[in-house]
Amino acid sequence: MTDLRSTPLFQRHQDLKALLAPFGGWNMPIQYEGILAEHRWCREKAALFDICHMGEFYFQGDFEKSGLENVFTFSVKNIPVGRSRYGFLLNENGGIIDDLIVFRLDEDQVMIVVNAATADNDFEVIQQRISGGIFQNISDTTGKLDLQGPLAREVMVRFFGEKVAEIPYFRFETMEILGEEAIVSRTGYTGELGYEIFLKSHKVGELWDLFMTDDWVKPAGLGARDVLRLEVGYSLYGSDIDEQTTPLEAGLEAFVNFDKEFVGKEALLTQKEEGLSRRKIAFRVQSRRSPRHHYEICFKDDSVGSVTSGVFSPMLGCGIGLGYVQPKAADLDTPLTIRHENVTMEATVVELPFYTGGSLRK
């Protein structure tokens, strides 16, 4: 644990007796009161997450002349100011170096939000692919809190005014919070109505304390966040997607714009032409058992793949998971058997999301 980085809220997590564990090179809170309790609080009220471990980059300049327009699987120049877009940074083979979100701050400015474990490599890769403009890693000076849940909007309005209530899904506003300029975005990773707040790292503790004065708000750790994201089918980098996985295999082609140039495009076009050798599936277990990472997936007694993510879903009352299988076992309603040593569980291929009752777009 001594080599792990800590967020500005580390002492507060300790004071709350949070269970801390390594995640992406950081010492992060996994749970406080308990994963199931925190999960339910997020589904019903407003949960507060410390997400300061994420990486943030700033770019200012000409998107096309610098080459930034061709770095990602989506168009940067076509993102309207005040909106954000999700997509990928790929290698030459079409593998996913990272999944990320780009926020269009101004006509010539963006903020790029990346995963914690990949942040340093992402910065180097992007820097090598562009020329000109200002490109900075602002991760150390940027903090991030996520307030997620059906009551999140009312909490935000209570503290910061009615302007917050007007922010539509996947848009953001730059506004003053605690005397500092902050970005308030209607995005999240839980399937619930929520906000991601980016502000100077030295103000994160003060904002956390302010939220914690509200009776509708409780802290939640990465354990609950993992269950929440999996119930709505969001992929986790390092588990469900990585450099050996392409967006096509992951069923995420919707976030790839083939009408523009980007690194890895030719490899993806070749893969489309030749066909996929494996596909990501979602499956539902016919019991309360939890499938786990690397469990074997079988179809008609043949081993056809493995589990990449799995949990017990409190909202569905059964085990759910994601995994990669041979195409013959990827169709909806296909019966599967999940195996690991003496553990066996029957499952069925289903559509995503598993859980559809969230407040995400309300």
Question: What is the topology?
Answer:
Blueprint: H1 10-15, E1 19-23, E2 26-31, H2 35-44, E3 46-50, E4 55-60, H3 63-66, E5 84-90, E6 96-106, E7 109-114, H4 119-129, E8 134-137, E9 142-148, H5 152-160, E10 172-177, E11 180-185, E12 194-200, H6 204-211, E13 217-219, H7 222-231, H8 265-274, E14 279-285, E15 296-299, E16 302-313, E17 318-325, E18 335-340, E19 343-350
Parallel strand pairs: 3-13
Antiparallel strand pairs: 1-2, 3-9, 4-7, 4-8, 5-6, 6-7, 9-12, 10-11, 11-12, 14-17, 14-19, 15-16, 15-18, 16-17, 18-19
CATH architecture of the domain at 10-52 and 141-231: 2-Layer Sandwich
Class based on secondary structure composition and strand pairing: alpha+beta
Strand tally: 19
Task: Report Rg.
Answer: 21 Å
Q: How far do the termini sit from each other?
A: 40 Å
What is the overall shape? globular
Within CATH, the superfamily of the domain at 10-52 and 141-231 carries the name: Probable tRNA modification gtpase trme, domain 1
Range of strand content: 25-35%
Spans of at least 5 consecutive residues whose pLDDT stays below 50 are none
In short:
The protein is an alpha+beta fold. The chain has helices at residues 10-15, 35-44, 63-66, 119-129, 152-160, 204-211, 222-231, 265-274, and strands spanning 19-23, 26-31, 46-50, 55-60, 84-90, 96-106, 109-114, 134-137, 142-148, 172-177, 180-185, 194-200, 217-219, 279-285, 296-299, 302-313, 318-325, 335-340, 343-350.
